[in-house]
Every structure is written in C-alpha cells, then in structure tokens.
Amino acid sequence: MGNHQRHRGMKSEDEKWFADDQLDSLRMAVADYNWMLSRGYSDGTATLSLVGDRYRLPLRQRHALMRAACSDASLILRKEKEIAPDQLQGKPLWIDGYNLLITLESGLSGGIVLRCRDGSWRDIASLHGTYRQVEETSMALEMTGKALLALEIPEVTWFLDAPVSNSGRLRQMMKGVAEYFHFPWQIHIVNSPDKQLAEVAGTVVTSDGWIMERAPAWVNLSQHVLGENEALQLIDLSLDPV
Fold first, then answer.
1. In the prediction, which pLDDT does 44 show?
2. Of 14, 29, 200, 239, which residue is most buried, by most CB within 10 angstroms?
3. Looking at residues 42-49, what average pLDDT do you find?
4. Beta-strand runs (E) in the chain
5. Distance of CA 209 to CAs 66, 151, 167, 188, 238, Å?
6. pLDDT of residue 242
7. Quick check: pTM over 0.85?
C-alpha cells in the first residue's frame, strides 16, 4: 500500500479554519442546519449551500457542518440506541471498518475529529474510493484490539467495503495484527456493509447516521479508543451556541 501519504492528518489550512476564533460562527451554522433538518429541509447540497453561504464557510468547514448536524428526530432515535462501552461485556460486536479506522487514524495523526450533535465522533477525511495505509494504521488497529479485549468482547466482526480499492490488502494486514495479538477478529469484504450492519442482531461500531438509526444498538468506540490521546484535535460541535 505504498503511497506518499504518511498521515491522515490536517489539511494545510485546517489550523486556520478550525482555530478558536472560527468556532462560534461554525457552531451557529450547525445550529441553523440542525433547525432546518428538523423542519423537513433536505440534507442535500441546496440546504448545505444556503447555510454555508450565510456564514461564508469555506469547503472544509462545510464538510464539518454536514458531518456534525442532524435533525431533532434523528438525535432522539440515535440517543435511544446508543450504549456505553462498559455494557458490551460478553457480547459480540460488528464494526464498520473504514468508518472506525479512518477516524482513529485521523485522531492519532492530529487531524480534525468532531464531536457531533448526536454524540458520535467523526473525522473529516475523505477516502475517494481508495484506501491507503498511513503511519498510524497499525497503531489504530492495535489500540482497537486491546481496548476490545479489555472490554471482554468475545467476537468481533469487521466489514470492509468491496468497492474500495486495497480492501484486500488491508484485510491481510488486519489478519496479521489479529494473529499476532490474538484478537478474536473476523474480517469480511462485502459489497454493502451499511445494509449488513443495519441488519445485525447486536451492537455495531459506526458513526454513520443511516446505520445508527437502523441497527439495534451502536457504541461510540472512537471516543473510547482515542480518549485523551495527546495528538487528538477534537472540535466540539455537539451543542447549540448559547
């Protein structure tokens, strides 16, 4: 998976666009977007452009806006389905592979991670149809596996997206990590992870809102694994501005 990309960290202007003096307007934009979604406006380009144009948000901030917001109805449903990590003991777990891994890689490499309205942690990285390993990939997998062992999870099933290039290589790497540390992992490459995760008979690890609202339960594993990691650049967009 060789590539010039070493980290899944910050873009060149993230330090500017997510500085403290930018956050008040970004939080107001998220509050407006929440309001519009709650009143039936589409979450598509037109609504995003309307709010983004009002606050003169650059592209990266608009991406954060889209990731952080949700309607009141979605908020209630997602919160009803959320369970705490300490409630997982003895239960199998299903993981939205790229969804979790990219957030952890971003957090470990100093990239922006958002605390969103629904409480989930989301990155603002983009995959563009091809996954490339970065320096933090092995660390992210090891930290995840050790955290799940500490939580006494007996079986973990990862789903990777078949349409994403290099999924096969990532699966081989993950199998090696699992064998070395004796992690109880099964790793599957499937065409539609979202649909399969929504239909499992248990708890899923994801920050994908569509899955969160359809699966029986979800857990915020990104927060549990990253915790107080010193590299973490966490931007809290979970609450409306006062």
1. 83
2. 29
3. 90
4. 93-96, 112-115, 121-123, 156-161, 185-190, 203-205, 217-219, 233-236
5. 12, 24, 23, 22, 14
6. 61
7. yes
